[in-house]
Amino acid sequence: MKTKALRLYGVNDLRLEEFELPPIKDDEILVEVISDSVCMSTYKAASLGPNHKRVPDNVAENPTIVGHEYAGNIVQVGKNHQDKFKPGMKFAIQPALNYKGTLWSPGYSYPYCGGDMTYSIMPAEVMECGCLLDYHGVAYYKASLAEPMSCLIGGAHANYHTRPGVYTHDMGIVEGGKVALLAGAGPMGLGLIAYLLNCDRRPSLFVVTDIDDARLARAEHLFPVEEAAKKGITLKYVNTGKCEDPVGELKNIAGGDGYNDVFVFAPVRQVVEQGDAILGRDGCLNFFAGPTDSKFSAMFNFYEVHYGSHHVVGTSGGNLDDMRECLDMTAAHQLDPSVMITHVGGMNAARETILNLPKIPGGKKLIYTHIDMPLTAISDFAKAAETDPRFGDLDAICKAHKGLWCTEAEEYVLKHW
Can you give the pTM of this predicted structure? Predict the structure, then answer.
């Protein structure tokens, strides 16, 4: 079977090529990829090439496929897996295999397995690790977003709290407690808001901060305080850039005694220290933002570590349980990761999107692998309709869904492109 794929040959050397896939083995599965959401980690792999820990040294001679946040349909199943998987099933993938201590991962390391291709072969270790997941939802893009959403879910589960005199940790945020999300109006922050407002362990007070009024306004449009109140959650949005005393303002909102859980979504020293300063007793600071500076550091109040039981946790990625939780909540319409997507395009746009990702504003970029479509911001659909009337239809569909990408928009694209 022929496939079209974006292959990595070296530093910034991505090539869109068509080639023949080999027949699958008994322990492999052939899948059709429908959607792939572009991750900053893919940009890092493309910019580093063989210097990336997950990319093989011989990538110039044996190119690999990029993209690891993908979903689609199972096409053919090797005989070793026919008791569990059937042709026609929808799938999502957890790319963090951690297979026998190696760093090999779909989207980085394999010649026939990745998200930016039309048809892909799942190697044996994907199934052996339980990382090929059955997806029962309708929209493929929501399954693509299960991987980044699983990172957020994992972060929420990783927070912990102590019991005085009892040497155990209670995992997760404090149920009915106070949560602050700092620098949280970006795409990943919106994903965490969506999760914490709808999961089974919710706060009573949820404060979201940013220094950009437009981003905060969009967050409040997507997650109105009135809707949160119906769930018993007091939701507040605060522009800390306009506060004379941000720490004092945030502590006042919390009643003066600080927050049980603080999430920091920007690798900025000032924000980290602000998070430390607003922790309450036994407060957990979750440093979620991944810095590029290996020496990044900030001050932390160790007086409060000793006397106030303040502590820090950090996570990088989610696990299979986090992924399953996301897929189950999405299929049950309890969680909508659509808030993360700001741009949509086809396979023809994948290369330039990946190589220029840090320069493209907005949130997640979504690629549909079987179509040709310029990468276009959802907010620019009306303008794009001046040259392609199909974008006018997409604009109307998305505006009917709070300006978000949605199942109807995906179905339109797959039919008309």
Answer: 0.89
